[in-house]
Design brief:
Elements: H1 2-11, E1 13-17, H2 18-35, E2 42-46, H3 50-58, E3 66-73, E4 85-88, E5 98-106, H4 110-121, E6 126-135, E7 147-152, E8 157-158, E9 173-176
Parallel strand pairs: 2-3, 2-5, 5-6, 6-7
Antiparallel strand pairs: 1-9, 3-4, 8-9
Amino acid sequence: MLKEIKHVQATADLLYSEQQVEAAIDNMAEQINILLADRNPLILCVMNGGIAVGGKLLTRLSMPLNLDAINASRYQNLTSGGAVQWLLKPSTPVKDRTVLIVDDILDEGFTLQAIYEFCREQGASSIYSAVLVDKILDHDKPVTADFVGLNVENRYLFGYGMDYKGYLRNAPGIFACKESEDNA
């Protein structure tokens, strides 16, 4: 497995450098600070992909807030998604709260849609979402993100929380697998 991971890493295309990603997170934080300044938001970091962007974004938010985690996944370290599986629900009450869902990528949108539905069912007063990457697809998604760092072509991505078979979330930038590996 490590041989495959090293090959993918060595042959990947760099789409956005670490500096470009950090600038995108700065921009998202500025927008969030304006919109949610007086809202006392509950930040729900989507595990595991949202860890990197969530941590980076959190230190840039200036309002009082609470932080919790949620884990609804379609990928389970695979390269294609299946049904949404709930692995972790937040322990902080969502009822009557402004919720900001933070994730690494908005791909097909099914996971984010399921998290929105969960928050509505729990009685959130308002729900927003922030994603580092919004993948450009040739069809509509069931949800759109309120705050987007970067728009990226429809390729298999890794870095800044996004993974390749559970690896490379820690890559310092946003990378795309070579075309022959995009559907691996």
